[in-house]
Amino acid sequence: MQEDFRLIVDLVSVLAVAACGGLLAALLRQPVLLGYLIGGMIVGPAGLGLIKEVIQVETLAQFGVAFLLFALGVEFSFAELKKVKAIALGGGGLQIALTILVTVTVCGLTGAWGTLPAKGMFLGCILSLSSTAVVLKSLMERNETETPHGQVMLGILVVQDLALGLMLAVLPALNQPPETIGIAVLTALAYIALFAAGAIAAGIWLIPPLLRLLARTESKELFLLGVVALCLGIALLTEYLGLSIEMGAFVAGLMISEVEYADQTLTYVEPLRDIFASLFFAAIGMLIDPVFLWNNLELILGLVAIVFVGKFLIITPLVKLFRYPLKTAIIAGLGLAQIGEFSFVLASEGQSLGLVSRRIYLLILGTTAVTLVLTPFVLRLVPFLFTFAESMPWLKPYLAEDQPRDMSEDLPSTNHVVVCGYGRVGKNLVKLLQQHDLPVVVIDQSESRIQQLRDAGVSYVYGNCVSLHVLETAGVNHAKGMAIALPDPMSTRLCLKRALELYPELDLVVRATHNRDIEVLYQLGAREVVQPEFEASLEMVTYLLTGLGFSQAVVQREMQQIRNDHYLELRPERSATQVAYDLRQATQDLNQRWYPLPSGSPLIGMSLEEADMRYLTGATLMAIRRANGDEIDYPSNQTRLEDGDRLLVVGADEEVAALAEFAKGQAAIPGENSACQWLTVNTDSPMLAKTLADLGISKQYGVQVQAIRRDGKFIRYPDGSMDLRVGDQVLLCGNLTGLSQLEHLFGLPSSVPLSLPVVKATEVEALKEFLPADNVTECN
C-alpha cells in the first residue's frame, strides 16, 4: 500500500513539475516539451532526487509514446501529401536516405561510435527527422503555412512522420550480429509488408463499421474506450510479431485517418495524448544528468553546429533539385535543420535495445534539445539574412526569383484584373470576377494550385508575385485592377511595393492578415485594404439581423458604419508605442533607413501631399522624427516637413538615392504653378528615337525629365544620351504650359498621371486654356 501511494506521489510530482516547466517554456516562446524535459531533470535522480519509483513512472510513460504515435497517424493526411507529392515523396525520401548514408559514411571513416554500420544507420535515422511541432508552430505564427517554403517543409515533414513507423519497426533488427543483420532486416520488412496488408484490409472493411457502431451509441465514453482499446491492441499485436509497440500505435492511427470519424477520434484522444506525452518527456528528462551536459557543453554545441550545417547542406540542394527557387530552398534547409522531438522516441528505444551507451544517449538528448531551442530564432532571422544577402551585388542575382516558371499561352494584355494568390480568398475573387466577364490573370507559385488553374482554364503565371518580371509578365502595368490575396504579410508588402513601381496609379485592393497590417498597407500605397475574417463576421451579423426582421437597408447602413469605424479608427485604439513597434516589425523585411532632411532643403515647409515623394522617387515615407525627439508614425498628407526632421523611408537603394537628390533640390519639385505628369511615347510621336539632349526639353519647355519607366524598370534622372522608345513612360515636372505642349508632342497621355497641385482661384481661368477643367481644383 505504501509503494502504491509512493507511485501516486511520484506521478503527481512529475505532472506538476512538467506543467510548471511547460508554462515557463511557453512564456519564453519555446517548445513546451523542453519545459517537460527540464522539469523531469529537476526532480529526477540526477537533480533533487524527489522521484523514488522511477521504473514505474517510466513504464506508465510508455503510454505517452503510444498515444503520440497514434495521434500522429490519425493526423496524417494523404490529401495534404498529394499537394506537394513530388518534393514530399521524392525530396523527403531522398533526404532521409542521404542523411543515413552520410552518417554511416562519416562514422565508418572516422571510427566514431564504433565501426558497425548498424549503429551508423541508427544515428542516421535520428538525425534525419525534423520537428513537426516546432516548424509548424513557427510557420503558423508567421502565417507562412501556405507559402512555397511552408508547403515544402510540411511535405517533407509528413514523409518523415511516415518513415518514423518504418524506422521503429526495423530498429530491433539492427541489434543483431553483423553477419545476420541483413537477414534480420529483410525478415522485419517481410513482417511489415504482411502487417501492412492486414492493416489496409482492416482499415477498409473492419475499422469503419466498428467506429460507426461506437458513434451510433452517442456515448463519448464508449467511443473513447473503443478507440484506446484499438490503439493499444494493435500496438501489442505488433510487439508480438517482433516489430514495435510504437509502430503498431502509428499504424492504428493511419487506419483511422481516412475514416469520417478521424477528427472526432483525434479530439477525444488529444487530452490523453497530451497528459501521457508530458509524462514521457519528463521521464526522459529524469534520465538526463545536468552535470554531464555542463561538462560536455562544448562537445554538444559542436554537434549542434555539425547537425545544422549538415542537414542544411543536404536539404537545400534537394529542394533546388526539384526546381524550387534558391530562396525557397534555403529557407526550407534552415527550417528543417534541427532534430525532431520523435528522435527522443527513437533514442529511448535504441538505448533499451543496447544500440547506444548512456553517454551517447545523453549527447543525443542534449543536442536535440539545443536544436529545438534554436530553430524558432533561426526562422525569425531569415528576413534579415536575405536583406543582408541581397545587399551584396554578387549574391543578389542568385537570390532573385525573377523569371516565371510557366504561363498560359493566351494571357490578356490589357484591361484585365491580376489576382495574386489562389488560396481560398483568391479562388472566390476569380470566380466572382469571371461571373462579371472580366479577364483574369492569376499569379501563384504552388504547383498544385497552378494545376487547378490549368484544369479550370484560368489564365495564370507560375512564379513569385514579388518579382518585377513576373508582375510584368502578368501585365500589371496594363491592368484595370489588382487584388493581392496572399496569406504571408511579408510577401504581401513586397508584392504591393513592386506592383506600384510598375504602375503607380494601379487600383489595388489588398488582403490584411492582422489589424496592425492595415495602416502599413495603406501607407505603402494600397487603395483599399480588406480583412477577410472581419468581413465574414459582418456577413454573418447581416444574415442574422435580416432574418430577425430588421430592415435590410438599415442593416447594410449599420454594417458600413461598423466597417468604416474598424478600418479608419484602428490606429487610435492602440498606443503610440505599439504603433511604432508594429511599424518596425512590418517594414523589417523591406529596405528601410532613417534619412536626415538636409538643412535648407526645398522640401522644408511643404506638406507630404505637395512634395508627393512616393510618386517622384518611389520611396515610401513611414515615419518622421522631429528635432525635439517627437516621432510621427504614419504621417498624414497634411503633415509638413520641418528643419531637422529625420525620415524613415522604405525603398530600393536607387529609390532612396533618388529621394536624397530630391531633398537636396537637385530635382524639380512641384510648386504652386507647376506639376508632374507621366506621359507615354506613342508610335507616332515626333519624340521617338531622339535623345534627351537632342530634344532639349528643359531649355525649350521649362520641364525636367525626372524618370523613365521602361520594360518594368525605373531609370531615375536619365542622362542626355538616352533615346526615347515606343511605350516609354516619362515622368516630367515643370510649368503647366510646357507640360500641356509636351502632352501633344508625346502623342498619348500616360495611364498613370499624377495629381496636379492645388492652385489659387485667381489662376483657374488662366489654366483652363491649357488643362481640362476637371484637373484643376480651387482652394478657398
UniProtKB/TrEMBL annotation:
Q: Where is the RCK C-terminal domain?
A: 578-665, 678-748
GO cellular component assignments: membrane
Q: Where in the cell is it found?
A: Membrane
Q: What organism is listed for this UniProt entry?
A: Desmonostoc muscorum LEGE 12446
Short name of one Pfam family: TrkA_C
Keywords on record: Antiport, Ion transport, Membrane, Signal, Transmembrane, Transmembrane helix, Transport
Look up and give the membrane topology term: Multi-pass membrane protein
The domain of life is Bacteria
Q: Which GO terms describe its molecular function?
A: potassium:proton antiporter activity
TM regions (residue ranges): 6-26, 33-51, 63-81, 93-114, 120-140, 152-174, 180-210, 222-255, 275-293, 300-322, 328-348, 360-386
* SUPFAM superfamilies named among the record's database cross-references: NAD(P)-binding Rossmann-fold domains, TrkA C-terminal domain-like
The opening ranks of the lineage are: Bacteria, Bacillati, Cyanobacteriota, Cyanophyceae, Nostocales
Instruction: Tell me which stretches of the chain form a coiled coil.
Output: none
Mind telling me which InterPro entries this protein's record contains? Cation/H_exchanger_TM, KEA4/5/6-like, Na+/solute_symporter_sf, NAD(P)-bd_dom_sf, RCK_C, RCK_C_sf, RCK_N
Main subcellular localization, coarse class?
Answer: membrane
Pinpoint the RCK N-terminal domain residues. 414-531
Give a yes or no for keyword Zinc in this entry.
no
State the protein's name.
Cation:proton antiporter
